[in-house]
Amino acid sequence: MGRPRKTFGRLEYCQYLLSRQVNYTLTNYAEHVEQVSHDLVKLYLQRDKLTASQVWKEVKQEIEMSEDGYLVFDDTVLDKSHSRHIDSVRWQYSGNAHDVIRGIGMVNCIYVNPETEQFWVIDYRIFDPDKDGKSKIIHVQEMLNNVVHHKKLPFKTVLMDSWYSTYKLMLMIHHLGKLFYCPIKKNRTVRLVDSDDPYQKIDLLSWNEAQLAQGQTIQIKGMPKEIPVKVFSVSISTHRTDYVVTNDLAQHCADDTKNICAIRWYVEQFHREIKQLTGIEKCQCRKQRIQRNHIACAVQVWIFLKKRAYRSKQTVYEIKRNLMKNYLVNELRDPSIRMSFS
């Protein structure tokens, strides 16, 4: 009678993603664990059906909520440039690569506590319109509704980039009684509030010194006249100026607006950390279900790392790096291969 085959599940796969530093393939796992074959790992990833709901289960007991909390929405592209046969891979623009690449789109929602300056990923969606027919805007609308009506998280403000600053989404946020701050594209047409002037591209607005400091109240074409917005000309660099709009008509300070928009970069931190520490882009399997389960496990690994980082006052990079530090300490104490001279 042969030895019983070892069981394999989500915990084992997440532990693998947490422990590995470079190679995240299924065959690499099988090469390092007795009684677990490549096929067994693949079978698990084919049969399980992990979704973003598992993310919320892991996070909801950890979040430190705030009535002044922020929701931040943004997307990233999981680079699959060298893949030709993976399901859900499509050509799409990557802000990281500053080019159109082959990859899997991922739309994310994070929750930021401005008092503690900590953040948590609370939801995500895979952008796969060929499968579900949903745009990125629809994914954001669904996640926003889920936060309000299901998760019931307190928050005050929604932040997003220009890709999501459509009038439909801005109206939705406004009708939920929340504030939004988002840059809009320079070809959006606007006019000053209570003006009969024709609409013009926002980058053609004139600005005096007081308006640069305090913003201007405008009407965006397509938005109801009874919902004006404030616009601020925010200098990002010597070569870039963003036009940030908000339904917070009480906002009269361009510097405060810039600081609020800076909170949006927490989501970029999440994108960088999850790509560098969990192997989220490294799965080479072709099947869509395997890719989705791999992504879900990678998100849960990031959540675990972040939770441990907050509790230990370390960074997620230090925690991951310490795994190799422990290996080196043990090897120097008792080398598995001893150096010698002839």
Q: Can you characterise this structure?
A:
By secondary structure, the protein is α+β, with helices and mostly antiparallel strands. The protein folds into 2 domains: 10-48 and 284-333, no CATH class; 52-272, Transposase Inhibitor Protein From Tn5, Chain A, domain 1 (Alpha-Beta Complex). 39% of the residues lie in helices and 23% in strands. It has 12 helices and 11 strands. It has helices at residues 10-19, 26-32, 38-47, 52-59, 129-132, 136-151, 167-175, 209-214, 254-262, 266-277, 288-312, 316-333; strands at residues 70-79, 90-94, 99-113, 118-127, 157-160, 179-184, 189-192, 200-201, 216-220, 229-237, 240-246. Strands 1, 2, 3, 4, 5, 6, 7, 8, 9, 10 and 11 form an 11-stranded mixed β-sheet that branches. A hairpin with a 2-residue loop joins strand 10 (229-237) and strand 11 (240-246). Helix 1 (10-19) packs across helix 11 (288-312), helix 3 packs across helix 11 and helix 4 (52-59) packs parallel to helix 11 (288-312). The longest helix is centred in the C-terminal third of the chain and has 25 residues, at 288-312. The mean pLDDT is 91.
Note the topology.
Blueprint: H1 10-19, H2 26-32, H3 38-47, H4 52-59, E1 70-79, E2 90-94, E3 99-113, E4 118-127, H5 129-132, H6 136-151, E5 157-160, H7 167-175, E6 179-184, E7 189-192, E8 200-201, H8 209-214, E9 216-220, E10 229-237, E11 240-246, H9 254-262, H10 266-277, H11 288-312, H12 316-333
Short description:
The chain is of the alpha+beta class.
